[in-house]
Amino acid sequence: MRIDWFAPLAVLLVLGGALATRHVDSNFLFYAGYVVLQFVVLATAWNILGGFTGYVNFGSAAFFAVGAYTTIALNKWLGLPLLAILPVAALVAGLIGLAAGYLTLRLRGVFFSIATLALAVVLETMVANWDYVGGASGSYVIPPAEVPFFDNYIEGLFSLMLALAVAAVAIARYIARSKIGRGFAAIRDDEVAAECMGVPTLRLKLIATTLSGALMGIAGAPYPFYVTYVEPTSAFNLTYAVNAIAMPMVGGTTTWFGPVIGAVLLGSLQQWATVTISSELNLLIVGVTLVGFVVLAPQGLVGLARQALARVRRRP
């Protein structure tokens, strides 16, 4: 009987992260860890559509910002806590993903990618003219003075994002090993052939856009409590769109764990560069790394490892 190691490992990771908040006395590590975990969720969400089905989404920042502005609106309107806002943010971003998918998924290749980029521009323009959430001037969000079970709110945000990252990876792993995942792979390899074989391609692509959008919205929902001040330029920042693509490309887009590897490596490298050199280098690092992997290792680190393993096995 095969033992599924993922569930106990996931529980250990979440408990280990919560335990670390009791014994690690460095808020910087929790701030940096939050950002890396946020990118784990974002990269995993992007990979469900971009990696599993082969539809490249340039509008990741739009779904991230939808989650952030859902938090601002609900916090201002009803004063809801973050835990109550998370499912609403996922629902709103997921519905936008479903609507965008229904309107754009008949497009293919670069035309679909351009349509997702246009979606981000449209949503940013709408938010910039929505005075209730601060419009172009932005809006402040006051974090809670006390968080149950934690000494301060950044430790609580870190633990929450860790749990969200584990949940996002668990969903991606389940999809990759399920019948839905095999349908996604068929679409990625040859969509026309998949249709001829009876694969419900449009339904599967709508599932991918909805789920991907919902997870990106969840990644963005805690963002206002993390930065405390949000304006459209920061929430719709190009950094989120570029990182969401680069991290799965670095790790490997055809597996559920490739985006995790890419997000941890690239996210940690960016945090190190921010502290030791300059935060302005972040996007340069991501761009150079992305170009390097596209040219030299298009299958990512997972592909390189598989090639090395295959060479070892072929040796007499």
Structure description:
The longest helix is centred in the first third of the chain and has 24 residues. The chain contains 15 helices and two strands. Helix content is 74%, strand content 1%. The protein has 316 residues and is mainly α. It is globular, with a radius of gyration of 20 Å.
List the defining traits of the structure above:
single chain, 316 residues, mainly alpha, two-stranded antiparallel sheet, 15 helices, 2 strands, 74% helix, globular
Topology of helices and strands:
Layout: H1 6-23, H2 27-50, H3 60-77, H4 82-104, H5 110-128, E1 139-140, H6 153-176, H7 179-189, H8 191-196, H9 201-220, H10 223-227, E2 229-230, H11 232-235, H12 238-251, H13 258-276, H14 282-296, H15 300-314
Antiparallel strand pairs: 1-2
Helix pairs in contact: 1-6, 2-6, 2-9, 2-12, 2-13, 3-4, 3-5, 3-9, 3-12, 4-9, 7-9, 12-13, 12-14, 12-15
N-C termini distance: 32 Å
Order of helices and strands: HHHHHEHHHHHEHHHHH
Q: In terms of structural class, how would the helical and strand content be classed? A: mainly alpha
The number of strands is 2
Radius of gyration: 20 Å
Total helix count? Answer: 15
What's the mean pLDDT score?
A: 88
pLDDT under 50 segments (min length 5)?
none
Q: Hey, roughly how much beta strand do the residues contain? A: under 5%
Overall morphology: globular
